Amino acid sequence: MEIFSTKQLRIYILSTTNGAFKNKGLRYIFSAFLFFCSSALFAQLPKNTQKSVSKAETEMAKHHYEKAQLILEKCYQKTDNNAKFFVKWKLEQCNFGIAAMQYPTNMLPINLGENINSSWDEYHPALTGDSKEILFTVRRPSDAQTVCRHCKQEEDIYSSVQQKGIWQPRTKLEKPVNTGYNEGAQSISSDGKYLFFTICNAEHGFGSCDIYWSKREVEGWSEPKNCGSKVNTRFWESQPSVSADGKTVYFASNRPGGYGGIDIWETEMITEGVFSEPVNLGKVINTPYDELSPFIHFDQKTLYFSSDGHLGMGGKDLFYSKLQPNGAWSIPKNLGYPINSYHDEMGIFINAQGNAAYFASDRIGGFGGLDIYCFELEESLRPEPTLFIVDNKENSENIMTVTDAFDSVKIGDTFILPNIFFEFAQSNLLPDSYSELQRLFDYLFNNKTVKIEISGHTDNQGSEDYNQKLSLSRAHTVYRYLVDKGIDVGRLSFTGYGKERPLAPNDSEENRAKNRRTEILILER
């Protein structure tokens, strides 16, 4: 019988998955296995110290940090100097866990429902900038098309569009994106035009898992292309996250030249499909342990990632860091409990507005395995909110932070307000709209000379007269909200364009959802 070394086992796991485990117990055991066995230091600890640390870990797994703390404090007094720093690190985790549980963050996860989740595993959610389309990875049972003959599961990418505030039944991306290989850990550009994702064990790859890209065309997604030998190596490259401008791709890799096991790297897309030599994000982000699941927010300044090398609650915790004006990353901050726990948290996605977080969990009450959940992100953990700017002349979209957008606003600029929602076929605002409207009010209140036009737009469903009246009524609702809050009527106008100005052809629900929108046009400033 062949015995796998820790390194061999790590490589085997990374070569057959995109970073999630089907069996909950296996995830926890493997996490603990890597933490202990990958450290030669632990093997060199005195037997009594090993026993005490293992006992403390058992208590930490139950979130009994006080009990673990007592065990480790006694151990610290008895162990020799060479082992004290290791025990002290575990004590620091206990202290952090105690404090985090005493001051928990507000978090009420909502399951995205049966149109997204199933008895299989769903994970790695990614949304477009307007939050109207979600893509995610699904681990399903293998079938006749599965290339790996001995594999019982296969990973594919699925998507869903939001219609009238409800996620529609998911659909699997067809060929050429999904094939008989493992595809997943995807990231979609803010405008929905580019898809970056991972394919594992492909004959046309450079290593165990490689990063590919595809472009959305009229007939669908283009044939995936490997990002090339600069990005992909004979090692493991996975979990790409593309910046809002589509120029920078962050990813995880265990390639040589890093600071530990798995590090986060970045590469620039010089021209379409041509990438620069990847650069390691440095020792502020990366540690001697693992950093995984990078997500760069639409503000292009806030990076979320998973790590077991920064101080946390014991396993892999979620952190965030902000890019400073001098190009350096800030010291990562832990997202706190209960977002983090003793066990592994392996990725988070924040919407463009910065107020909603999406993640995968196997918590009780789901549909089975890993499900995708959403929760409102606490103010202190939010990135800078972003807005869409529409160039009507070019029929294109751009996404900017609210601060950057309003600082650089020009007469004639048009902004999409992506989080304005109405009841079906009516002009009554839904509660989720008010945070977006408050941001608009704040801007107008702080910029007294700005005058705007509010416009409503619809898809092509229904008569021309019906759509014109509905769009006008919805624009008037936004107008009345601002007037009632105190904005002078002389600074506001409103109109409805019905279906006259689509952003996309009305040939699919996804495109029709883009066309149903509220915009503001800068008239004076």
Total of DSSP H or I helical runs spanning 4+ residues: 10
Q: What is the global morphology?
A: globular
Portion of residues in helices? Answer: 10-25%
Q: Point out poorly predicted stretches.
A: 1-17, 21-38
- Write out the strand line-up for the largest beta sheet, numbering strands in chain order: 25-24-26-29-27-28
Distance between the termini: 75 Å
SS content category: alpha+beta
Q: What is the mean pLDDT? A: 84
Number of strands: 29
Structural descriptors:
single chain; 525 residues; alpha+beta; 6-stranded mixed sheet; 5-stranded antiparallel sheet; 10 helices; disordered N terminus
Structural overview:
With 525 residues, the protein is an alpha+beta fold. The strands form 6 sheets. A 6-stranded mixed β-sheet has the order 25-24-26-29-27-28. It is globular and about 80 Å long. A hairpin with a 2-residue loop joins strand 14 and strand 15 (274-275). Helix 5 (65-78) packs antiparallel against helix 6. 24% of the residues lie in helices and 29% in strands.
Write the SSE topology.
Layout: H1 6-16, H2 24-37, H3 40-44, H4 47-61, H5 65-78, H6 81-102, E1 110-111, E2 121-127, E3 133-141, E4 153-163, E5 166-167, E6 171-172, E7 182-188, E8 194-200, E9 209-217, E10 220-221, E11 225-226, E12 237-242, E13 248-253, E14 263-271, E15 274-275, E16 279-280, E17 291-296, E18 302-307, E19 317-322, E20 333-334, E21 349-350, E22 356-361, E23 371-376, E24 386-391, E25 396-401, H7 402-407, E26 414-416, H8 434-446, E27 451-457, H9 464-484, E28 492-496, H10 509-515, E29 517-524
Parallel strand pairs: 27-28
Antiparallel strand pairs: 1-23, 2-3, 3-4, 4-5, 4-6, 7-8, 8-9, 9-10, 9-11, 12-13, 13-14, 14-15, 14-16, 17-18, 18-19, 19-20, 21-22, 22-23, 24-25, 24-26, 26-29, 27-29
